[in-house]
C-alpha cells in the first residue's frame, strides 16, 4: 500500500513538472522583467563568488542612481540556483546558468507538491495528502509563477512556505527538537527567499495563542514555537535585506507576545506570542512545584511584577510605533490591510509595477 502511494506521488510530481515545461517546446527563455534581473544577479554570483555578490553595487540597475544588490534583494532564489549550477558542474553536467535558472521553478513546483502532500498527510491522512498535492498542481495562479522560465522569488518561496508549515505541524505532533530545529531552518530559507515570510511569522503565533486561550497548551507547543521564534529570528536578522526589522517592525511583534504566552515579536505578532507562551509554561511548572497556598502567593507577586514590566514595555512600544510614519508596518502589509494605501503613490514604486502601469494606461484610454 505504501509503495502504491509513493508511486502515485511520484507520478503526480512528474505530471506537475511536465505541465510547467511545455513552454520550452520551441525555445528555453526567461520570461518577464524581474526574472531577467534575477538571472543577471545569478550570473554575477556564479562568476564572481558570494563575497563580491554581497558587496556588489550595480550601476546599471535603477539607473542613474544604481543599487546595492547584496543589501536590497532576497538572496534565496539566487543562492539556490547558483548552488545547483555549481553542484551540477562539479558532477560534470555542464549546464549553463540560464538553463539552471529556467528549470528552477518547475523543479521546486514538484517539491511544493511533495511538501503539500506531507503537510496534509500529517493532518488528515494519505488520501487527503494526495488530493491536496493534485489540487496544488492545478492552481492557475501557481502555475503562472512556476512554469519554466519564471525565475522569480515565488519559484522557491512557495515550497519553503508549505514546508515550514509542515515542519511546524510535525513538531507539534512529535515534540521533537530535531524537527523544531529543521522548522527554524526552513523559516530561515523562507526569509531568504521572499518578503511573504511575514505570513508565517504572524499565522503561527495566532495558532499558538489560540491554543493557549482554548486550554490546549502543552510542552509540545512550546517546543514547536520557541525554537522557531528564537533561532528563526536570529537567523532572519542575518539576511541583509531584513536585518533588525526582524525585531523592530510591527509585523513581528505578535510572535514574541505569544512566547511569553509561549515569549515576544519578531515580525509583528512574534514578540507578544513568544512572551505569552513562556509565561504559561512557567505557571504550569511552578504550580507543580508549590503547595496551593504558596502558589497563590507566588501568583500575586508574579502578576504584580508582570503588570509593571508590561506597562513599561507597552509604553516603549507605543513610543516606537508612534514615531514611525507607517506605524511600524511595511508597505506590503499596509497594502494588504488597507487597499487605499497605494493611492497617490508613484507607479514606479508599486509592488507590481507592470500591472499598475497597464491598469493606468487602460483607464487613460
TrEMBL record:
Annotated membrane-spanning segments are 68-88, 100-119, 125-143, 155-180, 186-210, 222-247, 253-286, 298-322
Start and end residues of each Oligosaccharyl transferase STT3 N-terminal domain:
23-338
Which Gene Ontology MF annotations are present?
Answer: dolichyl-diphosphooligosaccharide-protein glycotransferase activity; metal ion binding
Question: Which controlled-vocabulary keywords does the entry list?
Answer: Glycosyltransferase, Magnesium, Manganese, Membrane, Metal-binding, Transferase, Transmembrane, Transmembrane helix
Look up the record and report any one GO term of the cellular component aspect.
membrane
Tell me which PANTHER family the record gives. DOLICHYL-DIPHOSPHOOLIGOSACCHARIDE--PROTEIN GLYCOSYLTRANSFERASE SUBUNIT, DOLICHYL-DIPHOSPHOOLIGOSACCHARIDE--PROTEIN GLYCOSYLTRANSFERASE SUBUNIT STT3A
Write out the similarity annotation: Belongs to the STT3 family.
What protein is this chain from? Answer: dolichyl-diphosphooligosaccharide--protein glycotransferase
Organism, by scientific name, is: Capsicum annuum (Capsicum pepper)
